[in-house]
Automatic annotation (TrEMBL):
UniProt topology in membrane: Multi-pass membrane protein
InterPro entries documented for this protein: Sugar_P_trans_dom, TPT_transporter
Protein name, entry field: Sugar phosphate transporter domain-containing protein
Lineage of source species: Eukaryota, Metazoa, Ecdysozoa, Arthropoda, Crustacea
Domain Sugar phosphate transporter: 15-209
Ranges that cross the membrane: 12-31, 37-55, 129-148, 154-173, 224-246, 252-272
Keywords per UniProt: Membrane, Transmembrane, Transmembrane helix
Pfam family, one: TPT
Length: 320
């Protein structure tokens, strides 16, 4: 019964991995192509941030027990993390210029890299003949499919090939770390923390945030107030995350009150600036309309005689 239970959990984990992996391919493809959001470093930074927050939340609720993130543990897992960072970024770049079937075909070449690295790094015995034939069949089939791809993109396929090498290295190093008694959750924690900062730095260096701000997602889809509130919300999230990660802070009533006041002031400032801009725009529109009326007014078009008060009625005034 225990064997059946273990096999069932293993099968469930494999199915869950397959569903998530396939879904991410479609989701990333839709984000970058259909929604025209080609910012791979920003996307990966967001994914790592969500993972970090999810793990921290589970730890705060007592649902998960993880060791503290330290520089020592970070250095010990640095190589696998960098392999993952390269793999994830290169995969997104490849997916941007490849269709999903060909992307999947290229990614299926990863076992070939894993077999080689397992022998070289993990000192595993040479694989069986049947296993070698199956892996070579996958690889040859990929090359044949590439030759028949009418939408061939050299840059995308180059990024896809490099991502296969990076993924093979990453999976091999993770397997090596798992053999050193590290749990899956601990590996996920180390990988998320280690890659979050590099993704953010690379996103800033290639000016992705600036391009995102200039994109239609901010200027066309949202109003000025929405854009401003999103900026304030970003600072709020940044503050909340900073309270708990990298050692956090020691809570004090004055410190907490100051942060709350600072946040409320930010919302008040944003709303006030928005109201002022809207009032200025309204006043400018009224001034333009008034000037148009004055330009179009012709004294010679007055008809009729003035009344006793020397004033003309509205019907006596013609505006061209």
């Amino acid at each position: 019964m225990q064997l059946v239970g273990d096999n069932g959990r293993g099968l469930a984990a494999a199915v869950f991995y397959a569903v998530c992996s396939s879904s991410m391919a479609f989701l990333n493809k839709a984000v970058m192509n259909s929604y025209e959001f080609p910012f791979p470093f920003f996307i990966m930074a967001c994914q790592m941030l969500v993972t970090v927050l999810f793990l921290e939340m589970l730890g705060s609720l007592g649902k998960l027990s993880l060791p503290s993130y330290t520089w020592k543990s970070a250095r010990s897992f640095l190589a696998p993390s960098m392999g993952y960072a390269f793999h994830a970024t290169l995969s997104l770049m490849a997916l941007q210029g490849m269709n999903i079937p060909m992307y999947g075909a290229v990614k299926r070449c990863t076992p070939l890299v894993n077999l080689i690295l397992a022998v070289v790094i993990l000192r595993r015995p040479f694989p069986s003949f049947t296993l070698i034939v199956s892996v070579l069949t996958i690889t040859i089939g990929c090359f044949v499919a590439v030759l028949g791809d009418l939408t061939f993109d050299g840059f995308a396929y180059t990024m896809g090939g490099l991502s296969v090498l990076a993924q093979g290295l990453y999976l091999t190093l993770v397997q090596q770390c798992a053999e050193s008694q590290r749990s899956t959750w601990e590996i996920l924690q180390l990988n998320s923390y280690n890659t979050l900062a590099p993704f953010i730095i690379m996103s800033v260096l290639v000016r992705e945030p600036e391009n995102i701000v200039k994109s239609k997602y901010i200027s066309a889809l949202n109003s000025a107030l929405t854009t401003s509130l999103v900026a304030v919300a970003k600072s709020v999230i940044q503050t909340l995350v900073g309270l708990f990660v990298f050692g956090g802070i020691k809570f004090h009533p004055l410190n907490t009150a100051g942060i709350v006041m600072n946040t409320l002031g930010g919302f008040m400032y944003t709303y006030t600036k928005y109201q002022e801009k809207r009032e200025d725009k309204r006043q400018k529109t009224e001034d333009e309309n008034f000037n148009e009326v004055r330009v179009g007014f012709h004294p010679l078009s007055l008809q009729g005689t003035p009344d006793k008060s020397g004033e003309h009625s509205l019907n006596d005034i013609k505006v061209s």
